[in-house]
Structures are given as C-alpha cells and as structure tokens.
Design a protein that fits this description.
- By secondary structure, this protein is mainly β.
- It has one domain (about 10-25, about 35-125): predicted glycosyltransferase like domains (Thrombin, subunit H), CATH 2.40.10.220.
- The protein is about 15% helix and about 45% strand.
- It has two helices and eight strands; from the N terminus they run αββββββββα.
- A six-stranded antiparallel barrel has the order 3-4-5-8-7-6.
- A hairpin with a 7-residue loop joins strand 3 and strand 4 (about 60-70).
Length: about 140
C-alpha cells in the first residue's frame, strides 16, 4: 500500500493558525462546539490526521493525508490541499482513542477554498458513528 499524499504541505503551526482564524469568525468566544443542522460538531483541538480515499472517475483509488477540524456522529470536517466535488463518495480511515484505524464511508457535502490551495471539506457519513471513538470524552 502506498503512503498517503500530503497535498496540504503545511506545518502543524500553519494549520493551527488557520483554525484559529476560522474559529474567530465562526464561533462565539470560549466555545468548543458549533452546531450545523441537528448535530453538534466537536472542534478537534490537537492535530488529528486521517487518510482520505477517493476514486477519480477514470482511475484507481488515491489516498490523501488530511487534517481534521471537527467531527460529529454524522460527519466530519477537515483540511485538504485539493478541491473535491460535492457528492464525491469517499472513505476515511480515522484513528480511534486506542490509536487503531477504522474505516467510515460518506460523501462530500461541502468544499470551500480557505486560502492558497487549502480547502475545507465536509463529509456526511453514510452511517452515523460514535464520535467519542475519535475524540474520547470531549464528545
């Protein structure tokens, strides 16, 4: 299996700076949660890296390393270094609190350019998950 591609090519510090800027715009001060729809999303404070698997219309699957931003039982937000079309099916390998990988399936519901080549991607899971598997008791 090939190593995932890091299309972001930014340091953890740069990612933290971007997160800080977004939080100042999107969240009330001192809040660790935001709500989108009916499901609370938990902001991910430390660097959580996941593997995103996508399959181009004509080609074999590609794996990317992505940096998670927030998670809920029904979806996840992360930073990625490329645009992905809405409705694109994908698989994510998330790391649980015991440092084991597990697969979740979903599709892209949102992709917006943040700056330069950095995109924020929103994925809706096909089946709900227990987000505490990823963030522990913070959920």
């Amino acid at each position: 299996m090939e190593s995932p591609i890091d299309s972001l090519r930014i340091s953890p510090r740069e990612c933290d700076d971007i997160l800080r800027s977004i939080r100042q715009i999107m969240l009330p001060k001192d809040s660790g949660q935001c709500q989108r729809g009916e499901h609370d999303r938990i902001e991910i404070e430390n660097e959580v890296i996941a593997v995103l698997k996508t399959r181009p219309p004509e080609g074999r699957p590609i794996q990317f390393q992505v940096r998670c931003r927030n998670i809920s039982n029904t979806g996840i937000g992360f930073f990625h270094g490329q645009f992905i079309h809405e409705k694109t099916p994908c698989e994510l390998i998330l790391i649980n609190t015991q440092h084991e990988g597990f697969a979740v399936h979903g599709h892209v519901v949102r992709c917006r350019l943040i700056e330069k080549h950095i995109h924020e991607i929103g994925i809706a899971f096909t089946q709900p998950i227990d987000s505490r598997r990823v963030v522990g008791n913070a959920a």
